[in-house]
Amino acid sequence: MSNNKILHPEVLWAQRSNELYITINVTDCKEPKINVTENKISFEGKSGPEQSLYGFELEFHKDIKPETAKRSTTPRNIFLVLEKAEQKQDYWPRLQKDKKKIPFLKTDFSKWKDEDEDEDEGGPDPTGGMDFSNLMGEGSDSALVSLSKLLIYIIVILLTFIF
Question: For this UniProt entry, which segments traverse the membrane (predicted)?
Fold first, then answer.
């Protein structure tokens, strides 16, 4: 990939314990060339009314499985799902290997999940199976009757102390 007049598309990323989600935002990309290896991704394609050349190359923080890569192309972007080489490993602190900030690479918060949210998935129910719908006024008529009886009881007690 030559560096002559190559623009960088916006690249968004998110992750789970075993997968990476990468979105390359290029509109109406013609002839996209995406190369995914164990430790690197490269992209090149023409986009926009002037058919400007877009491209980038990133070295991954850790290895992935390129043979399981999935790709979906829409008129607005290219979406990739990449499987991490080590299953159930820790979350990566960043997508790229080096710590240098890359201006076109951003976190995709619409797909982001924290590590603890990922672990809770399928875990025990924190509510203990209790139904909380009654607490917001969506309960049965018996709750309303009980509340009415309680109110009458309080009024009788108050009247007893007053007289």
Answer: 143-162
